[in-house]
Design goal:
The chain is mainly alpha-helical. The protein has helices spanning 6-19, 35-50, 67-70, 78-92, 105-116, 120-135, 147-152, 154-165, 211-223, 234-248, 257-332, and strands spanning 26-28, 31-33, 100-102, 144-146. It folds into 2 domains: 1-96 and 251-287, no CATH class; 97-181 and 194-249, no CATH class.
């Protein structure tokens, strides 16, 4: 278990992607190795260097939306983000077995707000983005656990997970349920009645939830057949309060974090766009150079081969005619 690795893995990938047009291309056995494959190798090598172990299998948790993704794509580009995200993660870990854990969205927002101190709008945005990634057709995840199932019947839930990932179940893993691993303030001890924050749901500000985000989250849970319990009229209340907030907004109000993040992201995308264009041009030139180099290498190999063949023929002629000449001169008795 190596922990939460989302930013670690994707920052490495993005770093290679950012520099691809400025570093030497990789050629193996006269074959051009793609930048994506090189980036994937770099990520795996970094994992093995930072987390050395003799075990054949290991576990990590690339939780949440990595900064490399959220800073690269706007909300209108979530489909492109999903394609980029899953292409990267599948290339980084081509032999991986994936699964996810889903928790009630109200509990997630309350927990993140309590533990990290984030505002509700930013948490909903992040949750919806991750839910969109999980719902995308390219998502390789076929198995999901419910957080609530793990709390109510942990052994059954964990056994089903081990069966899916084809790892023998070990009773010792159940000891992990005897303590709280990342406790929010006031929740430091194991709760015997479960981890639901249902009694706090009313504290959420439904005006901070975009109905679009909530629809994406509901669709994600439905994809994995994980039902979400909602208070009566909650969905209608979310739509009404959000629309009321939009109607009341004025231009002199301070900008919220989600809007600020979008502004920062837009500048990051402009910078990346310029760099990407330069990288493409550089990569094109390097590829052309590599192709010429490979042709030259093949031609040189051909010349060497021809030279070797010529030397072999010459040696044969020297040997063959040399012996004949000695015989001839001997018979003449000069």
């Amino acid at each position: 278990m190596v922990g939460e690795t989302g930013n670690f893995a994707f920052d490495l990938w993005k770093g290679y992607e950012f520099s691809a047009g400025q570093i030497a291309p990789l050629v193996e056995d006269a074959q051009w190795i793609s930048d994506e494959e090189c980036a994937g190798r770099m990520v795996r090598s970094s994992f093995l260097s930072c987390f050395p172990d003799d075990k054949k299998q290991w576990f990590h948790k690339p939780i949440g939306v990595p900064i490399a993704v959220s800073s690269k794509f706007s909300e209108e580009e979530w489909d492109s983000a999903a394609i980029w995200y899953w292409n990267a993660i599948n290339t980084m870990f081509p032999k991986a077995k994936f699964f996810t854990i889903l928790r009630h969205p109200f509990d997630v927002v309350l927990s993140a707000k309590s533990y990290w101190g984030f505002d509700e709008a930013s948490i909903w945005w992040n949750y919806a983005f991750m839910a969109y990634l999980l719902s995308h057709p390219l998502c390789p995840i076929k198995f999901a656990l419910s957080y609530e199932e793990m709390v109510i019947n942990p052994e059954s839930a964990i056994k089903s997970l081990f069966e899916y990932i084809e790892v023998p179940f070990d009773e010792r893993v159940m000891q992990a349920f005897n303590k709280v691993h990342a406790a929010a303030k006031g929740r430091e001890s194991v709760l015997t009645n479960g981890f639901s924050r249902k009694n706090e749901w009313s504290q959420l500000n439904n005006a901070e939830i975009k109905p679009k985000y909530f629809d994406i989250i509901l669709a994600c849970h439905a994809k994995y057949n994980k039902a979400i319990e909602l208070p009566a009229g909650a969905y209608e209340d979310i739509s009404r309060k959000y629309n009321e907030r939009l109607a009341a907004d004025t231009s002199d109000e301070p900008i919220d974090r989600a809007a600020l993040q979008e502004i920062i992201s837009s500048y990051n995308r402009k910078i990346e766009s310029i760099n990407s264009e330069n990288s493409k041009n550089m990569s094109k030139r390097e590829k052309e150079f590599a192709e010429i180099f490979l042709k030259d290498q093949k031609w040189m190999a051909h010349l060497v081969k021809e030279k070797q063949a010529s030397e072999e023929r010459l040696n044969y002629l020297r040997s063959h005619w040399g012996v004949r000449l000695i015989d001839f001169l001997s018979n003449k008795k000069i």
